[in-house]
Amino acid sequence: MCASSHSSEHAVKISYRWLSRHVDLAGLAPQDVANDLTLHTAEVEGLHAFAPVLERVVVGHVLERAKHPDADKLSVCRVDVGTAGGATEPLQIVCGAPNVAGGQRVAVALAGTELPGDVKIKKSKIRGVESNGMICSERELGLGDEHNGIWVLPEGAHVGKAVLASTELLGAPGVASALDWVIEIDNKSLTHRPDLWGHRGFARELQAIRGAALKPLALDLAALSKRAGAGAPFAVRVDSPACLRYLALELDGVANGRSPDWLRFLLLAVGQRPIDVLVDVSNFVMLDLGQPNHVFDRRNLPKRSIEVRQARASESLTTLDGVARALEPADLLICSGDAPVALAGVMGGDACKVAPDTASILLEVASFQPAVVRRTAQRLALRTDASARFEKNLAPTLAGEAVAHFANVLAELQPGVRIASPLADAGQWKDPARTLALRPARVRALLGHDVDDARIEQILGRLDLGVTKRTPTEWDVRIPSIRATKDLAIEQDLVEEVGRIIGYGAIPERPLVAPIAPAPRDERRELVRALQDRLSGTHAFHETLSYSFLPQALGDKLGVLGESFVEVVNPVSEGWQRVRRSVATSLLGLLEPNLLHASEIRVYEVGKAYLPERANEHGEPLELHELALVLAQPKPAADARYDAGALQRLKAIVEDALRDAGRPASRWLASSDGAPPWAHPKRCAVAQLERAGSTSIVASLAELNPHTARALGVSADVAVASLWIDALVAAPRTARRYAALPKFPGTLVDVALSVPTARAAAEVEGAIRSAGKDLVRTLRLFDLYEFDSPAGEKAGAGRKSLAYAVELVAEGRTLAEKDTQRFLERLAREAEALGGELRRA
């Protein structure tokens, strides 16, 4: 509906039983249909049974109802269930529904039956009276929200049979009485196919794939006009080019109320909540043909006229969801007497919605410019089933078919409905149907498969693409309106149609006959691949892929909204207009939901960030290639080693990844210059790489600011790193050198140096290597202690102690004790040169 109040989901849902209204599915199981669509049309994401509980619940006949002797709101019913469940006589069932009465056909869950929600029915005593089952409501069966009373079935429902087996309950013309199955296809797979946003479009696909004939559907406007009453059509004026076509039909004699069960179940199967017969028929037509429509209560329209125009800056409209929305001139409005009554293509107005006592309606079916509808839906964060379809560029001819379909379906349900006046049809539009030239030889050449002309013509015919042969080698193919708006535009599109219906798996493989030259080296790609392999393999990180946008809610928690951002004009959703300045912000948004399922999180992402204040050579915002990493873990104990924290662990991982990629960092410097607001100001650093006399920053590292962690709802120890890919690519790669393993045993020495706080760890490490001369094979920092910390020693204020594990190895001999002592003596002198001392036990 263009006034739909139901938000569009991420998947198009197709009902197996609904499809059988349009094409004969005899002998074709739901899995077969799903397989056909996956192989020839679009990948099926899911297939599941709808309401399988209806196979386990039986039809019962309430023979009599009596009051419960010990509860005013309970009834004791005698219910005939035939021989279901081995019954030999009517069952006694205690029921609390106010609408239960003798003579009704009801849905009965016998003892042992499992209902949705893991509810298992058992024989029990309720207030002292034995109950042998349950008379069910629709909500208890998972069929909707109705819970005001039990579900009363049609009088013809077969007592003792499964509810599913009752043709009176689920049957409708052309619908087999069988368990329904729901096929789900991701919306993104169908964006280019406006014809596949309704069940009849998928039925056409099965016609082409299987050769099954499409069942006829009365969609003729001429036949509809013959049933119209005398008088002038409803006055319609289109004052905006954004509305291509607007049809309005007046209907009288409507009796609004509950829809028949077959219609309710079809809607429920595809995720639509049944409301009343007018809304349900409107949704049914939309989901059947793919054309949104809307129903106005005619008595609430200010005038017997409709005007389609652009909104004025000062106008507002309260939509069906009860929200007052400020309008902009870019929005398209449906008005009556100059009063807005609907937001075109998105949602109707609250003032003219149908009610239980609605007796006369105005049916609106229209065709709108896709860009106008999309812009309004995005600006208002109000993407509905209607807007999702209008965005796909529906053919104006489909609107006429939908008018006829709505009138016919409603008349089928309510024969007393009358068409009050002739159909109003306004707007400047033309049929998009056209003709494309096709060469059969070109089909064979592009597919690499010898398809004969007869087979090509047969496939096109099944797709409703008419063929006229100008010559044996040149054909004209008539493209119907529904496929002509954005789908079939060039000859290659027709070749693809033939190929997919044949099935690409049926086309034999052939080796390429062409020279294959090696692709030029891409240093950035090679570097990124090396980093990915190391992180995902050695360090067990998971790679993620995020949108390049920074949601406003996340930006507020990270404290970065005060910075400048590249912003998009038409955001995908409200609050998503900012493009991220760092890939790391996207990873921080993943912390809270993932820490609910794991105590340690290791994720990274390779992506792009954008800085508007810095321009590239074209004057555009600078695009940065970044690899961001996040490590989150439980906070280490107070007596844990220094390198047990997330910051030191992530630093070691980054160092290893850079070393493996041939770009080892020369040194790390503690620096908060340019650090983002979410970084701990005293727990951040940058990695420098020196080559050929120049120094560049290739990575940054930070611990998450405690304030930011609380805002994110995270109590873990979190460290974040960013590797700047462009800087790493610009640095020459260090050649990998292999050395033989030591032939003689070495010795491990733990040393601790007390130095001024201002001394960098790199200087201390240099002193250790200098003191060891050629003996130092490895060294690892395992403890850091700052004396002027709250728990530190007052006498050592302004100093810190760094403890290292040093491995000493000699190339041609075994080290003696005197070698270790000489190393420590030299290290003591090196420490003094740094203004510190070698700490002794």
Q: What is the CATH top level name of the largest domain? A: Alpha Beta
CATH architecture of the largest domain: 2-Layer Sandwich
Percentage of residues in helical conformation = 25-40%
Q: CATH H level of the largest domain: which superfamily?
A: Bira Bifunctional Protein, Domain 2
Q: Terminal Cα separation, in Å?
A: 82 Å
Counting copies of identical and different chains, the oligomeric state is single chain
Radius of gyration: 36 Å
Which runs of at least 5 residues are low in confidence (pLDDT < 50)?
A: 1-8, 172-177
Q: How many discrete structural domains?
A: 5
Could you say which overall geometry the principal axes of the C-alpha atoms support?
globular
Could you tell me the mean pLDDT?
91
* Lateral strand order in the biggest sheet: 29-32-33-37-36-35-34
Percent strand:
25-35%
The chain-level structural class is alpha+beta
CATH topology of the largest domain: BirA Bifunctional Protein, domain 2
